[in-house]
Amino acid sequence: MSTPVLYIGNKNYSSWSLRPWLALKWGGIDFEERVIPLGGEGHGRSQIAEVRAVSPSGRVPALHVGDVVIYESLAICEWAAEQAPSLWPSDALTRAQARSVASEMHAGFAAMRRDLAMNVRRRLASAPEWPADTRADLERLFALWGELLSRHGGPFLFGERSIADAMFAPVATRLRTYAVDAPESARTYCDAIFRDAAFFEWERTGGAEPWTIAQTEALYR
């Protein structure tokens, strides 16, 4: 079988691309990476021509494995776990809980994702005044992280790195970008993500990207 190809968006902005990229890296799975700059004609409507050429949903990430296209972040992570089972906890109940947590991030935290767009390069001097639904999302996030880190001892949510951490890694960057006042347990967890070699590689190359997305950059003016 040929080497899988992962199509991703700009590393500075594409939180959904970061998640399976980390899972593949952490699983030691060989893959080719191809970046498609987002923005411009069709952006925000899943109509970017270059993306539609490689992903039936019109969105990235999309993983090409032979003639099969896996085009959704959590599905790509699950494929990675089938190649590298250590990406989920070994205990069945703990594994189920980790899947629950990953699914909550996948489907939830809508207000936080709306108001804290990913921009790895940027740093605000102080946090904006968040609306009530965003504050509620942040409170839920900190409670969830705190409970898991206390139960499993850290440094990652279930002790060792897992897909759950890949799902929440972009959130760590958002807290840093927006100068969010987070509890100590959350700050310690974010530091563990930032020290990870694979994450550092993503951050370094994302910081060197020449592309910008005007809609996202406008949030900082």
Order of strands, main sheet, comes to 2-1-3-4
Q: Order of SSEs, N→C?
A: EHEHEEHHHHHHHH
The secondary structure category is alpha+beta
Radius of gyration: 17 Å
Number of helix segments?
10
CATH topology of the largest domain: Glutathione S-transferase Yfyf (Class Pi), Chain A, domain 2
What does this structure look like?
With 221 residues, the chain is an alpha+beta fold. The chain folds into 2 domains: 5-85, Glutaredoxin (3-Layer(aba) Sandwich); 88-203, Glutathione S-transferase Yfyf (Class Pi), Chain A, domain 2 (Up-down Bundle), CATH 1.20.1050.10. Helix content is 51%, strand content 7%. The chain has 10 helices and 4 strands. The protein has helices spanning 15-26, 49-52, 73-83, 92-107, 110-115, 132-152, 163-177, 184-195, 197-207, 214-217; strands spanning 5-8, 32-35, 62-65, 68-70. It has a 4-stranded mixed β-sheet. Helix 1 runs parallel beside helix 3 (73-83) and helix 1 crosses helix 7. The longest helix is centred in the middle third of the chain and has 21 residues, at 132-152. It is globular and about 45 Å long. The termini are far apart. 39% of the residues are buried.
List the helices and strands and how they pair.
Elements: E1 5-8, H1 15-26, E2 32-35, H2 49-52, E3 62-65, E4 68-70, H3 73-83, H4 92-107, H5 110-115, H6 132-152, H7 163-177, H8 184-195, H9 197-207, H10 214-217
Parallel strand pairs: 1-2
Antiparallel strand pairs: 1-3, 3-4
Helix pairs in contact: 1-3, 1-7, 4-7, 7-8
